[in-house]
Design brief:
The chain is an alpha+beta fold. 17% of the residues lie in helices and 38% in strands. The protein contains 5 helices and 16 strands.
Length: 285
């Protein structure tokens, strides 16, 4: 499935600063970039860094004395999703996990799995199959946390979301990750472009390692699991921020779009299908 994605944002700069932007889509075996274009107006000194392990693509910009600039990105991406039947999938013993997966078992800045461990085991410990646990976690979050724009900020963590019972996609993802890790299921944060997301924006969800495959879950139920174009993955939002600012820079309104390429026919998963199948787009399968 080929998608066309784009974003555009204008920044106001108070003094010479550096930004690290994460808006370029992932380019790997299961998601191939067919064409792309990134530019700043006016042109700024820039360089790209590819993160070891995840393949995340970061653009480092130096503003110099420029007081205002616009960053824009567009790409055509061929996404090769795989539908994974969840029946019969077993949880990989921790002793058999590879080094990379082990890193997604531990508490992190925004996903304090140690603080929500009792809640996780009380609510979901009776379920034996890992997919049943993850599905139940998503159901519980969707039923108990209200999606409310502006209700949280960049410092809100999973344990705080449990108390506040309100948040945005970032908070839903962090809570899902924390509860999964508390149950010994490796889980990681996922950011991307999302088809038919309303309102259009970057979207956050999470992936779990089940049966040797990283499968996508979205507790907000606002995006199609097979309508996502990966930007980055990490332990939590601390590793996947759209913009990391070193200096004094203010971002303006963000424009984001994600559409099937001309001639492509998008077929969404039937309602509830994600609880019987998983969607995997990872290069780690």
């Amino acid at each position: 499935m080929i998608f066309e994605v784009a974003c555009r944002v204008t920044y106001e700069v108070d003094f010479p600063s550096t930004l690290i932007l994460s808006m370029h889509v992932h380019d790997g075996a299961s998601q191939k970039v067919l064409e792309e274009h990134f530019a700043t107006d006016p042109p700024l000194l820039q360089s790209e860094t590819i993160v070891d392990g995840t393949g995340d693509r970061l653009q480092r910009l130096q503003t110099g004395t420029c007081p205002r600039f616009t960053a824009s990105y567009r790409a055509r991406v061929d996404c090769d999703f795989e539908i994974v039947r969840n029946q019969g999938l077993s949880q990989t013993p921790i002793a058999n996990l590879d080094t990379e997966a082990l890193g997604y078992l531990f508490p992190s800045r925004y996903c304090e799995s140690d603080r929500v461990a009792k809640l996780a085991w009380d609510l979901f410990g009776h379920l034996q199959k890992p997919h049943d646990r993850v599905a139940a976690i998503c159901d519980w979050i969707h039923a108990n946390v209200t999606y409310t724009r502006g209700s949280t900020d960049s410092s809100t963590s999973a344990s705080q979301t449990v108390v506040q019972r309100a948040g945005v996609c970032r908070d839903f993802a962090h809570l899902g990750i924390a509860l999964c890790r508390a149950l010994n299921i490796p889980a990681r944060y996922f950011t991307g472009y999302a088809y038919q997301l309303d309102p259009p924006d970057f979207h956050a969800c999470f992936e779990c390692l089940i049966g040797g495959r990283w499968c996508i879950y979205d507790a907000t139920r606002m995006a199609h699991p097979n309508g996502l174009v990966r930007i980055a993955t990490g332990v939590d939002a601390s590793e996947t921020a759209v913009a990391s600012i070193f200096g004094s820079v203010r971002g303006g309104p963000l424009e984001v779009s994600c559409q099937p390429a001309p001639g492509e026919n998008f077929v969404p998963l039937p309602p509830g299908a994600q609880w019987t199948v998983g969607v995997s787009s990872s290069d780690d399968n």
